[in-house]
Design goal:
The complex is a heterodimer of chains A (about 900) and B (about 100). Chain A is an alpha+beta fold and about 900 residues long. Chain A has 27 helices and 24 strands. Chain A has a 6-stranded mixed barrel. A 6-stranded mixed beta barrel of chain A has the order 14-16-22-18-21-19. In chain A, a hairpin with a 2-residue loop joins strand 7 and strand 8. In chain A, helix 6 packs across helix 23 and helix 14 (about 395-435) runs antiparallel to helix 15. Chain A starts with a helix and ends with a helix. Chain B has about 100 residues and is mainly α. A two-stranded antiparallel sheet of chain B has the order 1-2. Classes of the chains: A alpha+beta (about 900), B mainly alpha (about 100). Chains A and B meet through helix 2, helix 3 and helix 4 of A and helix 2 and helix 3 of B.
Chain lengths: ~900, ~100
């Protein structure tokens, strides 16, 4: 009985449309078998009677669905009909052309990754969201000095006036950051950043404390006991999250504070801070535009806007300027979004530059996409037959374009997913590198894929798909589609003709690759090879040595001279004790970490500068920062500096004690400077002077005094940021007191800088507990920090260059192969008529070579123009090596592409070729 | 009076309700609704084409172990649940039509 039922169901299944038949049969057989087992064959038979009705119903349903589909996809105006089957077909195409898929996905993924990353990073700077309740209403108030074009930060009096009188802002407060030694009984002193801040900061940010209380206005009163609020991390790490934290003492520098509260995790207002104490500064102790440098914050009052606050601030500024013209005539109060002063969004040039970068990066993606489009176009050409048949069967142009668009969209979407994954990982790297290298960056600079960045990536993906899919599709489904159908019936090959446009594309592609890629390759390579370190770097412990200045900011407590003398005494004592340690071989100092000298511009007496430094006014002033003169690095160092770093004196003498005298005008230069300025001539006894420094703010600066060169030293090994290993340098002699914040270098032996750090802290604490050792690390580590960031940039540059190079080669390959295959029939016929194959090949290659050669020539010309325009910065003289390599690479790709189709053409049987004709 | 959505017949409503109560394959639904197989299966196809119901196949292994073809299981889509919810709001008795299937 069951067998009979099975046979019956199989028979009925024949009535079901074939697409659904298998599933229908399986379902019914399963049901009937199960029922037979559970309820007997009689019930199974009764149920099976419904099978016929079901089969017919399903048949009707499928037919209705097909009609609906036809109605959607039928002929009509240009309409993109897209269905899930298009996606399936697109996926199938991706699998069928794995090479194109891999190249397309890879190229677009790199493009989208970089575009989304650039967007995320730039808009984090340009338009950061302050992660606080109603963070967009928190503002900064600053006094812009219209004369110096910088903010004036000595604004104690103005702050008090703003706080007490302005109505459009509330919770007005002020802060400054100071370094202090954290001193505890059982550990060495550690430098921490203490924030002296108004209590209103805590009501402004509206974040309640986790434990205890935050700062209150009473704490700011003179004579109030010193209290401290600590951050979550400090509480966890230093106090193991003790619940009895409130009331515990903490010694910072000379002051013992009482902890009154802990702020929750992630709280880092105002910049990136975790120790807060009230700012106790009396305006009465200072004149206007004197006193400590401060930063003012506030919250817009209910109903107030940035505009209304600025109107009030401007009116306020005018009144103050009238009342105190001597100090305030040039000062303009401004109310800005809180984050603006940290990244100068106020400056339209910066904004334009930021948008321009985003645009240019997006343009790179467009270039990538055009290349992928060329590849897709070449493939579409091989699908002419399919397109023609579908058109003949009634598919509209919109329908076919839609299909090709979906194919491109699927390709681009895969690339976008891959690209965004890369961006997410990359941004984490950038964040880690930033937090590691620059612990003081603002807490709101957290690079992540925001919703905006994802939206931007999605938009770019659609644009990419449009370029890659729609442009070739429109071209391929043009008005000659009918003609193509006839060609197809005649057995001909591709009907797509491009003629001059195609030639132009080949030429442009080669020209673009040759013009721009060498410089990109050079820079990517140059950045990657950074980090060649010197063994000396790993023997040297560097730290900035800072001495607490008296707190309370009351002027007159210690004169600058007294402070300098105190600093010199502390340094001398520290150096003496360190040298007594057997693990230390040298102690020296400089005004900066070696390799991070300030940039400046000099000219030499009697030698014309690279650019005219004379000003129309008579030659005593130059435009600062105009880079007139030789670019050099300038630094002040201890007289024992060269000795400590084993830098030999090549000519003249090294620095001596007498050079540190204030009236001294002697300098030592390195070999790079001597060679670049004086050539082979002797530099000793020659004179140089400064014509500008990177710190100059006004348009013109007075020329510096002439300096005598007394010695030439070997080039000090340097690190990455300055890519030329032999940068020109000028060394001035200095005492520790001259710098009063020296970067000390302690060269160790038989130990590592890391292992010696503890000992250094002990010795420094014994000399003076207020001596702060800031960021002690081996020189190798310090230089490596900057390299970490550079490496991220280099990796991005490398990825992009590789993607563009690969795509350019692939694009040229596809275009050449396509043009030659278009001539396949011609080649076959000529071969059939008895032409010499060698001459035929020669003619094909000469045509290809002319196209490629024209492109290469134009590219080289463009490269030369760009190189000249950039003043040789683009390739720094390496063009003669890289340019030919890229050119040859592109030519080879093109000629190789011509080879395959040409050989296929020669292999056509003559009769076959004639028949095609 | 017709059900809330003109596309949904009473049969369809009954089937949605049966599915909601955990009756997941054709015969089970037949049993609990009392409707004949010639009605149930076509209705299931229709509901599936309206995206109110979706189907999935039993695991091959399970079927093979019991020596029979794979069963096809149906369940409500979010659209189906919404549609049923609307109908239940209009016909309060619908919710009590069929007993919940014991999970044993």
């Amino acid at each position: 009985m069951l067998r009979l039922l099975t046979a019956l169901l199989r028979a009925i299944a024949l009535a079901v449309p074939s697409a659904e038949r298998g599933r229908w049969r399986e379902e019914w057989l399963a049901e009937v078998h199960q029922i037979a087992r559970e309820r007997g064959t009689r019930t199974a038979a009764r149920v099976a009677t419904g099978a016929a009705a079901d089969a017919l119903a399903l048949r009707r349903l499928v037919a209705a669905r097909a009609r609906a589909l036809a109605a959607t996809h039928g002929k009509g105006p240009m309409r993109l009909g897209i269905s899930s089957s298009d996606v399936k077909l697109a996926l199938r195409m991706l699998v069928r052309y794995p090479g194109l898929t891999a190249i397309g996905v890879l190229g677009m993924a790199v493009g989208i990754a970089i575009a989304a990353g650039a967007f995320a990073i730039i808009y984090t700077f340009v338009d950061p969201a302050l992660p606080l309740p109603e963070g967009d209403r928190i503002v900064a108030i600053q006094n812009w000095d219209a004369a110096a074009n910088t903010p004036e930060r000595r604004i104690l009096h103005d702050f008090v006036a703003w706080r007490d009188e302005m109505t459009t802002v509330q919770d007005v407060g002020v802060f400054r950051q100071v370094g202090r030694n954290l001193i505890s009984a059982n550990a060495q002193p550690e430098v921490v950043r203490l924030t002296e801040i108004s209590a209103s900061a805590f009501t402004l940010t509206r974040i309640p404390p986790l434990v205890g209380r935050y700062l209150l206005p009473d704490d700011e009163q003179p004579g109030a006991p010193p209290v401290l609020v600590i951050g979550h991390d400090v509480w966890r790490k230093r106090f193991a999250g003790a619940s009895s934290i409130v009331g515990q003492p903490l010694q910072l520098g000379e002051t013992e504070y009482t902890i009154v509260g802990v702020m929750p995790e992630g709280y880092a207002f105002p910049v990136n801070n975790d120790l807060w104490t009230p700012l106790k500064v009396e305006p009465s102790g200072y004149e206007r535009r004197e006193g400590p440098s401060l930063t003012v914050f506030a919250r817009l009052a209910p109903g107030a806007t940035l505009e209304s606050a600025n109107t009030e601030a401007t009116a306020f500024g005018l009144r103050t300027a009238a009342a105190f013209p001597r100090t305030h005539a040039q000062l303009r109060p401004q109310v800005l979004p809180y984050t603006y002063p940290y990244f100068d969004v106020n400056d339209p040039e910066v904004l334009v530059a930021a948008h321009l970068v985003v645009f240019l990066v997006a343009l790179l993606l467009v270039i990538v996409c055009v290349n992928v489009a060329i590849l897709v176009y070449a493939r579409t050409a091989t699908r002419q037959g399919e397109i023609a048949v579908r058109t003949a069967l009634g598919a509209s142009r919109g329908r076919i374009v839609g299909q090709l668009f979906v194919e491109a969209l699927v390709l681009a979407a895969i690339a976008a997913v891959l690209g965004l994954a890369v961006t997410t990982a990359g941004l984490e790297q950038v964040n880690a590198a930033m937090r590691q290298g620059y612990p003081q960056i603002p807490f709101w600079w957290d690079f992540r894929l925001s919703a905006g960045a994802v939206g931007y990536a999605v938009a770019l993906t659609i644009v990419a798909a449009a370029i890659v899919g729609v442009v070739p599709a429109l071209k391929a489904t043009g008005r000659r589609v009918q003609l193509r159908l006839q060609t197809l019936s005649g057995g001909g090959g591709s009907g797509m003709q491009l003629g001059r446009l195609w030639t132009l594309l080949v030429v442009a592609q080669v020209a673009f690759a040759v013009a721009l890629l060498p410089a990109a390759i050079f820079h990517a390579w140059d950045s990657m090879r950074l980090g060649a370190t010197d063994p000396r770097f790993d023997q040297v412990l560097t730290t900035q040595l800072v001495l607490d200045r008296p707190t309370g900011a009351t002027p007159g407590r210690e004169s600058p001279q007294a402070f300098a003398a105190r600093y010199q005494a502390r340094y001398d004592e520290l150096a003496r004790r360190l040298m007594a340690d057997p693990a230390v071989s040298h102690v020296t100092f400089g005004s900066n970490v070696p390799g991070e000298e300030a940039t400046a511009w000099i000219e030499a007496d009697g030698i014309p500068s690279p650019a005219d430094t004379e000003s129309p006014g008579g030659g005593t002033a130059v435009r600062a920062g105009s880079r007139a003169g030789h670019t050099i690095g300038t630094t002040h160092v201890d007289v024992g500096f060269f000795d400590a770093y084993d830098v030999p004196v090549l000519a003249g003498r090294g620095l001596e004690r007498r050079d540190t005298a204030a009236a001294s005008n002697t300098v030592v230069v390195n070999r790079a400077l001597a060679q670049s300025v004086f050539g082979e001539a002797n530099a000793i006894g020659r004179r140089i002077r400064y014509v500008g420094t990177s710190r100059d703010v006004s348009d013109t600066v007075p020329l510096g005094a002439w300096l005598d060169i007394v010695g030439v030293v070997a080039d000090f090994p340097t690190h990455g940021i300055d890519t030329s290993l032999s940068r020109a340098r000028v060394y001035h002699a200095a005492t520790a007191a001259d710098i009063a914040g020296v970067t000390m270098s302690v060269r160790v032996r038989a130990t590592t800088p890391g292992a010696f750090t503890g000992r250094l802290r002990e010795i420094a604490a014994a000399v003076d507990p207020n001596l702060q050792l800031r960021q002690p690390a081996s020189l190798g580590e310090v230089l490596g920090r900057d390299l970490a960031m550079l490496r991220v940039v280099a990796a991005v540059l490398m990825g992009l260059t590789a993607a563009v190079l690969l795509l350019s080669a692939a694009g040229i390959y596809a275009m050449m192969s396509f043009t030659v295959s278009q001539r396949r029939r011609e080649i076959g016929i000529r071969a059939a008529l008895g032409a010499d194959p060698r001459r035929l090949l020669g003619s094909i290659f000469s045509r290809a070579a002319i196209q490629l050669g024209t492109g290469a020539l134009l590219g080289m010309l463009a490269a030369a123009v760009l190189e000249t325009a950039s003043g040789g910065e683009l390739m720094r003289g390496n063009g003669l090596v890289i340019l030919p390599i890229v050119t040859v690479f592109m030519m080879c790709a093109g000629l190789l592409a011509a080879l395959g189709p040409a050989r296929r053409g020669l292999r056509i049987h003559p009769t076959e070729a004639l028949r095609e004709q | 009076m017709a059900p809330a959505n003109p596309a949904l017949s009473y049969t369809g409503l009954f089937i949605l309700q049966a599915l909601a109560q955990g009756h997941r394959f054709g015969f089970d639904i037949m049993e609990v609704t009392g409707l004949p197989s010639g009605t149930i299966y076509p209705a299931l196809r229709r509901l599936e084409s309206l995206d109110l119901v979706t189907s999935d196949w039993e695991k091959d292994q399970t079927a093979r172990k019991e020596g029979r073809p794979r069963r096809r299981y149906y369940e409500l889509t979010p659209g189906g649940k919404r549609q049923l919810g609307e109908a239940e709001a209009r016909f309060r008795a619908v919710g009590r039509l069929f007993p919940r299937r014991s999970t044993a």
